Amino acid sequence: MIGSRTVGGGPRRPHRAERPERTHGSRRRRVRGRPDDFVVVLWLLGVNYMLFAVTSARWARVLVAVVYVLALVVTVRASHPTRGQRRVLGWVVACGVVVAGVAFATLPFDDASGVTDVMITAVLVLTLVLVLSRVLRHRTVTIQTIAGALSAYLLIGMTFTSLFAVLAWVDPEPFFVSASSEGAPDLQYFSFTTLTTLGYGDLTVASGAARGFATLEALVGQIFLATLVASLVAAFRTQGQEHGTRRPRSGHP
Fold this sequence. Notes:
It contains eight helices and no strands. It is mainly alpha-helical. The termini are far apart.
C-alpha cells in the first residue's frame, strides 16, 4: 500500500501533521502534573499582613508591594494561563512597577504612595480573580484548595485595605471620624475588623463612599465564609471519611 511505504527498509516516519498532537498531549500532561502552590501564596500574604500591622515605613511599603507581586506570580503559575495571558500579565506588572517608580521619583511621598496604592489594588484584584478561578476548578478538595480559599479571603481584606488607602488619598477630608492617623496599620485594622464583622467601633469612616465600601466588604466577607469556605471544608472532611471507609474493603492497611 502507498501509505505504508518505507525508505531503505526502515520504519515509516510520522507525517508532520501527526507530531503536534503528541507535543500538545505531552504539554497537557506536564500542565496537569504541576501542583498548585496556594500554601506559598497564603504564607506570602501572611507575611504582608504582619508587615502592614507592624509599621507603615517606606521600606515596608516597598517590601509589601514586592511580596504582592510575588504572590501574583505564584498564583499565575497555579492558574495555568496561556502564553498570551502570561504576556499580558507581564506587561501589566511591568507597567505598574514603572509607574510606581516614576511616582516615587517625581511626586511627594503621599502622592506617590497614593499612586502605588492604585497599582496594588489592581494587582490584588487580579490575583483574587485568578485564585478563585483556579480553586473553583478543583475537582477534589485538597489542602491546596483550602489554602487557596483562605488566600482569597485574605486577598479580599487586603484589596479593601488598598482601596481605603486610595479613598483616603483622593479625599481631602479625614478618612476616619475620630482618628488623626490614616496609616497602613489603621487602614488594615479597619478593613479586617469590617471583613470579619467584629465592629469594635473605635474607627469609623467619615465619607459616604467609604461607608458604602465598608458595608460591601462586610457582606462579601460573610457570604464568602458561609458559602465557599464552609462548603470546601465540609467536602474535605467528607472525602477523608470516605477514604477511611474504603480502605478496609480494598484489603490494604
